[in-house]
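Hey, sorry to bother you again with one of my protein questions. There's a protein on my desk that I can't quite get my head around. No rush at all, and the record is pasted right below.
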Amino acid sequence: MDAQQEFQKRLTQVRVAMRDKGLQTLLVYDSGRHNFLRMNYVAYLSDFISVGPETMLVVPLEDAPVLYLSPAWDLPRAQEESWVQDVRRFKDFWPCLANAGKAGLIGREAISAALHEEITKQLKTPPVNAKDIIENMARCKGDFELERLRRAAAIADAGVKALHDDARPGLKEYELAAIVEYKMRSLGAEDNFGMVVANSHNQALHPATDRTVQRGDIIIGEITPCIGGLFVQICRTVVLGEPKPVVREKYAILHKAMGLGMQAAQTGAPACNVAKAINDTFIEYGYEQYCKPPFMRVRGHGLGCGSFAPGSLEDENKTKLEEGMTFIIHPNQYLPETGYLTLGDTVVMGKQKAESMMRSSWDIHIKD
């Protein structure tokens, strides 16, 4: 299925859901902030990632959709990249509300209070929160999305290899991050949320700084390229020079936890099973008190565009893992002997279990 067919299929599904809810118009909003922890519903339906500050896709029940956006100079790019043929300036959006009828709104979380108030005023009644229309469609990925995700996964692997090849003492942290970013952008990544840092005892992942990398440093990375609006993430650890035995010893715990987390990711099982398998591994080695913030955050999470399913992998999450769900499993962990260490793969749920989308080795990489 090509892109045009895929997005026409999504439009058809949206309109079926609109009829079920009694909606005449669907308003889909985005502010231009595209990242893997929040939804970009406009991108999911239009195949266009705006720069913001305001983008509204208007989907009437019968007529052709219209994409309104600002700044106006971004219209030509939208016309080139999106399947939506009618693209207009955001300031021309307001007249369409006069005959919108009963309207649903998706993207309420990104909209300002003032803009929401004005939309409600123009509609004369508050729009219905309709984000479940897209959330339900997007929670499990089909072949079209999986093809894009596999491309992104290959790019993420290439970013890791570039770090393996080119990391060396004397570089700044931001130069390490730039090595990864350049490689992935050159292969077609549209975006990257990347944190690559180095220290002999890392406290946490954070944006790269101007610290000079030294021999003996542990490089940790969370690398998250985007293709077609869809993110994958990979987490790996590199050591410059032969690591202390304790580093190998403690990293082996992450390696074991990763394997057990993958085994726990069974189709039909609750997401919390993955978190429990990982946490139990650290508890086995005496680190129960470290299985909570600030020593870790979650044991994995969804990678959003249209849906964040299955959500964060944590003890309270009873969401059942379904075939086609994609998310990252990462037993990233601060340990007092070594500092923060990272390991993680994006996975897709198959008919029976999770399958990694990455090919990079889980082993700690030693760079002489």
Summary: The chain has two domains: 3-138, 143-367. The chain has a mean pLDDT of 95. The longest strand covers residues 218-227. The domain at 143-367 is CATH 3.90.230.10 (Creatine Amidinohydrolase).
